[in-house]
Design brief:
With about 475 residues, the chain is an alpha/beta fold. It has 18 helices and 16 strands. It binds flavin-adenine dinucleotide (FAD) and iron/sulfur cluster (2 copies).
Length: about 475
């Protein structure tokens, strides 16, 4: 196919559930490409010799390589290429902010002067992974796992404790297991997966996909100890000093919700987005009768924030039966950090956007329950440190707005428990664990860290990259120790 012919193929639209239907169910919104669509979309790739898209992928997947296989219909071959760099293609194909990563650099988008017309790399990646899962479900042979990044010739098996079970930990555990190490994951919650199970809603990332990845880890011999809060149930250093582990990886994430610090935040009916989403996702509160988790039947819900978490919380509120959901953000839509696709979906489903506004105070009514918020308007001033125009409060613009539920979605900080209970574990001023950039080892010999606990709230693919680097660091240190023992 000539470049001209490739450029004449229209971008393939993602089939989706109708907005009016999906706001009433938890099923996945994006239904996935058909085989024909996946081939056509992959055929749009010009196979640029400089591979600019790869510089936007944090784990440097050979994107033109896998798209070329997919265009030929060799989806297994495509997946093999993807898996050399990424462990969770079904997850990343769904949740990576592709428009800011790989697709941002795509030549096709640039030639069309429209980033929306870039090759839909993530969607093809998702198709390849979903196709394999469907074949597996139908009884086809399991694929051979990708090669280990480290040597597997250890005479004694190194024992590695992994704290947390989010994408950073899953990747570190898989790479360590493939290197021949004896791996145990210690997780505070009752289900493994981190934000993939408790934060990102089912309608964006079906939990069966995460469960299948955890099953593959189990198949590799990784053990799981759930309901183990490291720092409380067991001290981090106990793993090394008392339990016979040779190395520890800390992937405890950034699950500490930030609040506004305004009057009324302790009223009944105010939630952090984390709690709100955890109740619905992990504890299945939406399934009344099927699960015991109580939830608040908000009718008029205000979600404060403009990121992906705010989009998830507002779309979840609709699915939990709210009549009205308002997204309150103090800058304009242009400055909103949320993905364009999420903003589009939220609006399509009926979330009402209240831009250039913020809550100044939350007002309580009968029984200490939320009855309203006091809103204040903003204008946009000069750009701030983030490069976005800064919000400037308009004096005298205060007004009351009736709501019965407020969800605060203004970001999360690093989980503080492990650093607070581990003397000698160095953190920066924002509580993020400091690591060696090449090996991800912390200030304590044998203790490694990665993901959001190191980066601050980031992305799934960046967390996975960190887990992989730490696993390589763990393997390298073990090789050195073995050499010293000889
Ligand atoms: P996490 O996924 O946070 O996992 C940490 C795990 O450690 C948790 O299971 C936690 O229970 C456990 N833990 C914490 N403390 C302890 C302890 N003391 N002992 C034992 N276990 C402990 N990123 C994207 O790329 N795309 C998206 O669309 C996207 N949407 C998001 C939506 C929401 C609602 C949220 C909250 C985040 C979203 N992110 C998204 C960000 C992304 O999920 C994170 O960057 C990523 O999950 C970080 O991975 P992690 O492994 O570092 O930590
Ligand atoms: Fe793009 Fe994410 Fe896939 Fe990398 S892992 S190619 S950034 S979708
Ligand atoms: Fe293909 Fe776009 Fe990458 Fe070029 S930049 S190789 S067109 S995906």
């Amino acid at each position: 196919m000539t470049p001209k012919e490739k450029l004449s193929i229209p971008p393939q639209a993602m089939p989706e559930q109708d907005a009016a239907v999906r706001r009433g169910n938890m099923d996945e919104v994006a239904l996935g490409y058909t085989e024909e669509q996946a081939k056509l979309e992959a055929s749009r790739c010009l196979q640029c010799p400089a591979k600019p898209c790869m510089q936007g992928c944090p784990v440097a997947i050979d994107i033109p390589g896998f798209l070329s296989k997919a265009a030929e219909g060799d989806f297994g071959g495509a997946l093999e290429i993807i898996r050399k760099s990424s462990l969770l293609p079904a997850v990343c194909g769904r949740v990576c902010p592709q428009e800011r990563q790989c697709q941002k650099f795509c030549t096709v988008g640039k030639m069309n002067k429209d980033p929306e017309k870039a090759v839909a790399i993530g969607r093809v990646e998702r198709y390849c992974a979903d196709r394999e899962a469907a074949e597996k479900a139908a009884g086809a042979a399991r694929p051979v796992p990708p090669a280990a990044p480290a040597s597997s010739s250890a005479p004694r098996r190194q024992r590695v404790a992994i704290v947390g079970s989010g994408p950073a930990s899953i990747t570190c555990a898989a790479d360590c297991a493939r290197a021949g190490f004896d791996v145990t994951v210690f997780e505070a919650l009752h289900k493994p997966g981190g934000v993939l199970v408790y934060g990102i809603p089912e309608f964006r990332l079906p939990k069966a996909i995460v469960a299948a990845e955890i099953d593959s880890l189990r198949a590799l011999g990784v053990k799981f100890e759930m309901n183990c809060v490291v720092g409380r149930t067991r001290k981090l250093t106990d793993f090394l000093e008392k339990d016979g582990f040779d190395a520890v990886f800390v992937g405890t994430g950034a699950g500490l919700p930030r609040f506004m610090g305004i009057e009324g935040e302790n009223l009944t009916g105010v939630f952090s987005a984390n709690e709100y989403l955890t109740r619905a996702n992990l504890m299945k509160a939406y399934d009344e009768g099927g699960h015991d988790t109580p939830y608040w039947h908000g009718r008029r819900v205000a979600v404060l924030g403009g990121g992906n978490v705010a989009m998830d919380a507002s779309r979840m509120a609709l699915r939990l039966g709210a009549e009205k959901v308002y997204l309150v953000y103090r800058r304009s839509e242009e400055e909103m950090p949320a993905r364009r696709e999420e903003v589009f979906h939220a609006r399509e489903e009926g979330v009402e956007f209240m831009m250039l506004s913020n809550a100044k105070r939350i007002i309580g009514g009968e029984g200490g329950r939320v009855s309203a918020i006091e809103l204040v308007s903003y204008s946009l001033g000069e750009p701030d440190a983030s490069g976005r125009r800064s919000p400037v409060e308009i004096p005298g613009s205060e007004r009351l707005f009736d709501v019965d539920t407020v969800v605060v979605a203004i970001g999360n900080s690093s989980n503080p428990l492990v650093p607070a209970t581990t003397p000698g574990l160095e953190t920066d001023s924002r509580g993020r664990i400091k690591v060696d950039p090449e090996t991800n080892m912390t200030s304590i010999d044998g203790v490694f860290a990665g993901g959001d606990i190191v980066l601050g709230a980031a992305t799934v693919i960046l967390a996975m990259g960190e887990g992989r680097r730490a696993a390589a660091g763990i393997a390298k240190r073990w090789q050195r120790r073995l050499a010293q023992m000889d």
